Amino acid sequence: MTMHQPGIFQEGTKHHAFLEFTVQGAPRVLPGRALAIAGVEAGHQVVGFGPALCEALARVAAPSRDFGFDALDGMDGMHAPATQRDLFVWLHGDRRDELFARALAWRDVLAGVADLAHEDHGFLFRDSRDLTGFVDGSANPKAEARMAAALVGDGEHAGGSFVLAQRWVHDLAGFAGLAVEEQERVIGRTKPDSVELTGDAMPPDSHVSRTDLERDGRPVKIYRRSSPVGGVRDAGLYFLAFSADVARFRWLLDSMFGRTGDGLRDRLLGWSRPVTGSIFYAPPREALPAAFGD
């Protein structure tokens, strides 16, 4: 039976390390097999590959060959840059020291074939809130619905998942300058208890409105695993999401950035902007070791 990488669905962890590597050349295999298959002390690991690396590796194939992140230009000068990397490692757990040790091990074993192009360390903020003060991931699918949203369901790629990774920087001072009631209209939920606004109280340009989509009469669902990241000067969010269908990411971003022809964009973009953008493919657990040599 084909199995997904289990770290995708392990929730409630306190610490995160997000590593994005640029790989040199077109290797048929990467070093680091021991790290790819070893568990993390008090934690979990997920590994994904960018489209160019999927093409190069001898035994890793994605359901789609063309799934890299393309830059978006939206309404009012809003922009989502593309910084497509080749290899993604997400470490998360309850011991930051062990995650850091594993991150160092990945850096060292890949030295000579890959450069660490981007690194972020995330943390649990209060009761699972974004740094804006709103609960993050309230609309995430639960139980078996998580897997239906995140994983390729059948065929040779069953258990695989596409991964969207974006680093966002928040204007926390600007957002905090809004009255709480206005903040709630930007997000589309109440701030204390994350209750979704309804009826006329829900603005059509709220974050909830622009990301609660249907396509051909069916809800567009992804599984989010984002985390607060950064320091005081660059505080924000590492947006991490998994999907069975890579097209869902584009549909959601088009809606947020005002590219759907209805004259609206996500109002939250006035206080938060992306500074990176990559899409990776996380293969089923049983296919992962073949990408790595000794």
Descriptive report:
The chain has 294 residues and is α+β, with helices and mostly antiparallel strands. It has one domain (6-291). It is 21% helix and 24% strand. The strands form four sheets. Strands 7, 10, 11, 12, 13 and 14 form a six-stranded antiparallel sheet that branches. Strands 2-5-1-6 form a four-stranded antiparallel sheet. Strands 3-4 form a two-stranded antiparallel ribbon. Strand 11 (227-229) and strand 12 (236-243) form a beta hairpin.
- When the domains are counted, the total is 1
Per DSSP, the total helix count is: 8
Topology, number of strands: 14
Report Rg. Answer: 19 Å
Biggest sheet descriptor: 6 strands, antiparallel
Give the overall pLDDT as a whole number.
96
Q: Considering DSSP H and I runs of 4 or more, what fraction of the residues is helical?
A: 10-25%
Task: Provide tags for this entry.
294 residues; alpha+beta; 6-stranded antiparallel β-sheet; 8 helices; 24% strand; globular
